[in-house]
Amino acid sequence: MTGGPFSSFDFGDAAERLGPGGYEVVYETHRLQVGVYVLAAPEPDAQEPHEWDELYFVLEGRGTLDVEGEKHLLEEGAAAFVAARAAHRFEDYERIVLLVVFDK
């Protein structure tokens, strides 16, 4: 955990370390968590609803984000907000790399 008025962090090689899939926290404070999430077919996105609001930024690839039955196509450069406790998961991806920001 870090604090203070300014911090810098690097997430550039996290996707390479994660290879075919996984999640890595790249920065965290008591109010915020930033991570890199990699999903690769055929592995399904098995995440459960979170207790925190969440932002997804698509760094590589494309996929469909299903939020409580509503499907949204997200491509590289897109971002999406998912409210706390909303059921959601990614579908229809080959490989997608996401920067994830949680408001704890």
What would you say about this model in short?
It is globular, with a radius of gyration of 13 Å. The protein is mainly β. It contains one helix and eight strands; from the N terminus they run αββββββββ.
Topology summary:
Layout: H1 14-18, E1 22-28, E2 32-40, E3 53-60, E4 62-67, E5 70-75, E6 79-82, E7 88-91, E8 95-103
Antiparallel strand pairs: 1-2, 2-8, 3-6, 3-8, 4-5, 4-7
Helix residue percentage: under 10%
Biggest sheet: strands side by side, in what order?
Answer: 1-2-8-3-6
The overall strand count is 8
Overall pLDDT confidence: 95
Name the helix and strand elements from N-terminus to C-terminus, one letter apiece.
HEEEEEEEE
Distance between the termini: 13 Å
Runs in which pLDDT lies below 50 for 5 or more consecutive residues are none
Instruction: Calculate Rg over CA atoms.
Output: 13 Å
Computed structural class: mainly beta
Into which percentage range does the β-strand content fall? over 45%
SS summary, helix count? 1
Which word captures the global form? globular
**Most strands sheet:** 5 strands, antiparallel
